[in-house]
Design a protein that fits this description.
The structure is a homodimer. By secondary structure, chain A is mostly helical. Chain A has a single domain, classed as Arc Repressor Mutant, subunit A (Orthogonal Bundle), CATH 1.10.10. Helices cover 53% and strands 11% of the residues of chain A. Chain A has 5 helices and 2 strands, in the order ααααββα. A two-stranded antiparallel ribbon of chain A has the order 1-2. The longest helix of chain A is centred in the C-terminal third of the chain and has 15 residues. The radius of gyration of chain A is 17 Å and the shape is elongated. At the A-B interface, helix 1, helix 2, strand 1, strand 2 and helix 5 of A face helix 1, helix 2, strand 1, strand 2 and helix 5 of B. Chain A binds a DNA duplex through helix 4.
Amino acid sequence: MGLAKTEIFSNKQNQIASYSKVFGHPARVAILEYLFDKNACICGDLVDEIGLAQPTISQHLRELKQLGLIKGNVEGTSVCYCIDKEKWTEMKQVMLAFLDQDIVADSKCC
Amino acid sequence: MGLAKTEIFSNKQNQIASYSKVFGHPARVAILEYLFDKNACICGDLVDEIGLAQPTISQHLRELKQLGLIKGNVEGTSVCYCIDKEKWTEMKQVMLAFLDQDIVADSKCC
DNA sequence: TAACAACATTGCAATAATACGATTAATCAT
DNA sequence: ATGATTAATCGTATTATTGCAATGTTGTTA
């Protein structure tokens, strides 16, 4: 039905899924990498840098902003986006706990 | 259009997006956590464990299998799934490189 | 104030994802 | 062989996502 049954899963599981979902599009990965690379707030160059239309970029930025991973400062007529470091660290904790699950050696099969 | 323009992004960016996408649903997160927790191949208990119908679970398992993150061994009438450790480690490298991007202290704003 | 610049929003078309009933395929038990 | 069990696949309804043209909003500049 296109609608995930989030209510039957734990908060942690839904949180991991939410973070992952936002990373699940290469444009958003590219935006974040660009923001990291510049290590400073950048503004409208994202549209030129990534080959997507302005409304599309704006939409991706909004999703990143909704999760709190980026912040936007209005600077005159342009808006300056950058990584929210606290939130990024917080997200990283959650994701690492998931990715770093112990792989015990003696599994029964496979 | 519902169709991501993957061709304008790098292989690495698309790879990160692919891994993230598969983690972008709580059911698949739950399946993986259960597989890790049991540290042994389990079969149809996933249907009982997670509250989704059998075809739905089977569909999620297929997506995980397509990415290579899990393996399935046929054991009689049931199928035994477990984490593919090599592939998991490989995936972890890629994801960590993305998550661990340097957050330099002296950013210009925000 | 009027024109402009930079983004955000809206609306829409096209495709993808989610979920499950029904069915099929394979194996086991008798 | 027959029936039961397990899981994969098919078909389909429903919702979500992606992308962009058109338009709106806000602040700047002449």
